[in-house]
# Entry
Amino acid sequence: MQVDRKDDGSGEVEIGTQYPLGQLARALQTSQEHPDADARARAQDKVRAWTEVFSGMLQGTLSVGSRVPVADVPAWATLEVAKGGFATGRLLAEGALQPHEQALLSRLQREDTGSARAALNAWYLGEEGLAELRRMLQTGGYRIQVPEEGALLVVAWLLDHDQAERARNLLDQLAPFFPRLRFYPVPAATPQADTAFVHVRDVEQTRGALARVRPRPELQRQWESARVWTPLYDRLVALWAGALREAPPGFHFDADFEPRARALLSNIDRALAEHTLCAWPRKPQLNFGRLHTVLKDALRARAPLLPGQARRVRGVLEAISQARGLPGSERLDALRTRQREQLERPSGVDFAREALRRMDGLPGDAGLDSLDALTAPVKGFAFPASIEHKLRLSLNAPVETLVEQRLIRSSETLARVVPQLSAQVRALGISQPSLRSLYSALYTAFRRRRSLLLLNLESQVKLEELPWVAAIDAYRKLGLAAETASRRTLEQLVRLTLTSFPEVLLPNKLLQEVRALLKGADLQVPVVDELAADIFMGAFTEKYLEAARQAEEQLAGTLYARYYDLPSALQVMNDTKRSSHGPRTSEAFAALCTARAKDGEGSAQWSVAANGRIIEQAQILTTHNLATLVEALDLRPVLEPHLEALALRCFTRACELLEARPPAYRSRLRNVKNAAYAWRHMLFFLSLRPEATHPAFLQDVETRLSQRRSDLAQRLAPAMLGLRHAVSGGQMKDAPPGARCFLGWTVKRHWVLGAAPG
# Structure
């Protein structure tokens, strides 16, 4: 991504247009060349989005990198955000009128005009509309797709609870946007689910996945072969077998043979024109082609078969008879019966369509409480695993169950699921049931907002910044029950993440939920995000320094501290000051990370690789939240039985990534970076175990490494030498020649990749 400094002396940076142009070019190519129509349609929408991004940047209506990137639009408005955090300029609560809006306009006998949305917002503030909102609040019969759709529900609740002044203040902020945005919810026949269970996909997403099921080409060819060509083949063989059974070598076609032969040839010619998936009927060297060719030639000549033709036909018939039997034989009849039975089995597309039919009428924004009715056999055949898996992704279940069944297969997926839990936990501090449900729905909708690309230490918009959430946040009181639930959910989430996905960084989306739950549990823990190397400008907020202090204190003297040479100077750093952009930063911590990053490697200023090395040092010093969360939540006893297995999983994953060798060099570099993260997590988990256990673990991984079928042992030898030195009690700064600390970022060719190909 292209990052430029402004020329006004402010030190601020701005994003160039190179990245959006690259994304636009890729989307254009996909929209024109991809073989799948759905993929082309999705690409066309991306073309539209990136065109709007590029146009907005050129015209100055978009300030990419700002938390308010769209001119004259407040921070609380939900933006359409493209890949990389680029706002397109569109608002998700505006656009064409949706079906429920059209239905209400029809009910009110009003036309769909340019002021239709303003009229609908105004109607909901009238007597009849407020009554409708009150009914929704009481029954839970509404859905909030984007946070704005809950604003008038909040107004209705405030008016019902003698808070007219707050309601008026809120409306003053919303009124300028009445002509553009939906501030009213989507009516629903059923109340929102209120359960401790979660699901990976809602029903509507699963419907989309089922609708995209396409027949597999090889199965289509098999179907065509069995349904079209096999019956024609049998008829062709039977025709020749009947004609040559009693005939002398130079027989003439009798009156009965010729009409049947011409009718069969007509059917074959029509099939050749209409059915093109199977190639074998068109190959003259195969038995079908031989019999077909002789028949055409003989009918065209209207003369007795030549001796060579007759021998060729008899030879083919003899080969068919020996292989599977001629038509009418018991062997061939049994074979065709088995094939017909196989054909009766519904295809994957048939199962997908049946599942869609059975899901008709289910709420699209909910999960599935049971799969029994949906996966009952079709014509006696069980649902294929691929279709059942799609349905299972919507199953409501405890989050641990979804991880155990590998329905949640990454920490990123877990991050998308967790808001379903934390929304309910955060709402526990509200005693009034209807407001509690509303707050939960608003929280869930807010978590669906995509993060913006931000520069200059700006922060993402917080839930409490939405005016209608701020108006009711005062009614959410932290109490013992809410704190206990937040603490319990937080412990569950962190434990599950570390034990299920130990080899990867905690993703930023997951850290959002961690912060929310920490706040609900009234815990003060410095949680640090993964920073983007392409827009990093060398500054760290004070929470990085605090997290590094806590990590150094907890890991002092451990294997982790020796391997990464953790400094003791962190404890005396106290230079945080407020930056020109607001947050407090630590120049000393940034200088320390920069100095450690340049150790042994020169670097070009502002290069992505140089930035990556600095960020990686910050991750090492802070353990990227591992030490702080484990200590704050007292997770050591819970993790103790799993620590060796977790460390081994990290080592194994690092080996897998380094062995993968994808063709693109950038992909190999990404694998090296992720392998280094896994390596660091391995050292962290080992450091929570007694020092006496480390030599046995080292011997185990050395044995495993020597057994891998690649040159990995040779390429990883410097890192293993450094690990061996640290396990024996040494510091990496005193390591023997050839030993290296395994880091992911480098400004040169990475040593773990081996020599560059000549």
User: Anything to note?
Assistant: The longest strand covers residues 86-91. Residues 643-753 form one domain.
